[in-house]
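dude i think i finally got it to work??
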Amino acid sequence: MSTSNVESVDTEGQPEPSPELDRLYEDFAAISTTPLWTQRDDLMPETPSPKAIPYVWKWKQLTDIAQRSGELVPVGRGGERRAIGLANPGLAPEAYCTPTLWAAIQYLGPYETAPEHRHSQNAFRFVVEGEGVWTVVNGDPVAMRRGDLLMTPGWFFHGHHNDTDQPMAWIDGLDVPLAHDLDFGFFEYGSERVTDEASPDISRSEMLWAHPGLTPLSAQRSLPSTPIAAYRWEYTDRALRNQLELEDAGHPATVEQGHAAIKYTNPTNGGDVLPTVRCEFHRLREGTATAVRHEVGSSVWQVFEGRGTVRLGDEARELEKGDLFVVPSWVPYSLEAETGLDLFRFSDAPVVERLNFARTYVPGVDRPEAPQER
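look at this
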């Protein structure tokens, strides 16, 4: 290309059209290259510009369609799970909730067994209602009850069995999109049923690990995922209740006035329960409104109990028990509790923080935090 063509640019920094420029772009395509100046805004926007959109799924609709699936679709080898993914409309045709997180409602009918398998992807289950199902994780039967968080770290064999005459539904969360898009995934079939069909009140992992502040000397090394198979609701509830009691007594214990919150942690190192997924629980007093926040990274929330409103960008949506909503990266959000409001949350924060992309902005309170110097 001549010097005159290179130096002739329009007011937006783009070269003026010319036959030579057309040929240049054709030649770029012919050797599978693309010039940065034609895509800079897409590759490096001034702020995150997510394809995922804010979205709310209503629990009543999810459980209705899960029940219909239970009547028509068997659980067994091949399909493996009667799980219904929450597909973000902005990420179609992929059945992803966010670019890094997969979420689904899973449904197991009376006396059904979901066969064992394992995969590289990290997973958890959270129970908003019901009981009677045991998830068997690496041969350890773990009871699933309302309010419990059940862990299935990557490459652990797992299956489920329902010991009752009633169906049960819960939510699954995994890092499927992250593993899939980075080509990290492996999958392997296990037992046709489960390796232990017992139904104990407490799992072996809880007997060893689930004692606050106490670490067994038999196992002191740091583990990438939590060794605790179940985080029980009674302890979560007590921790949140005590935070609000301390707030009432004038002690700093909550993240903001009327807003108690906890992070589920790995007892071997104090970090997140899974290397790629953070799990939290939030409790808002009646009438509490949270600050508007922008956060790098995406999160999925489920209402455990109560009624309220979530504002996602410019849109406000009413929430009730079981409803799920997604907050894409940097989309402003806030919550307001009509009644006392309990919410479970999971996010890709461990990935964001480990890669040093974490950034938060609360309008009217602070400015966007500058990334750490490299």
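The first helix runs from residue 3 to 7.
im so relieved honestly
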